[in-house]
Amino acid sequence: MKNLDIEKIGTDLVIAYEKAQGREPFRPKYKGCGWDLNFGNNKETRYIEIKTTRSKKLTGRWLEKAGYNQLRMNPDFYVYGVTDIKDDGTGTLTIHTAADITIEEDIKYVLKFKNSRITENKL
After folding, report:
1. Total tally of structural domains belonging to the chain
2. Tens-digit pLDDT profile for residues 86-117
3. What is the CATH number for 97?
4. Which among 3, 7, 35, 45 has most CB atoms closer than 10 A?
């Protein structure tokens, strides 16, 4: 499976999850904003960066500088990890907030995911 296929499956799973929570997806207004998708309803808006892998666990992942700034300052910014992606289009979703992530600034904003506060949802 190619990386683009993995990313598409991960994005589709995130969209399905968010819709099930009553939030509708919409694209950010500009490129380079630091996240992949927005989801919202009349109560909240989430700014979501999506990280995907076929592995069972997310390890260090790159984050653009704009995303790094959002992670530090925006309480509505989330990193959704989709792991264990299978050929049949399934995977495991983990939702991360700034409290769940350590950022190693000296090596270009690599995210390290803590396991203590992760919400897991099998999709």
Report:
1. 1
2. 999 999 998 888 777 776 654 455 556 655 34
3. 3.40.1350.10
4. 35
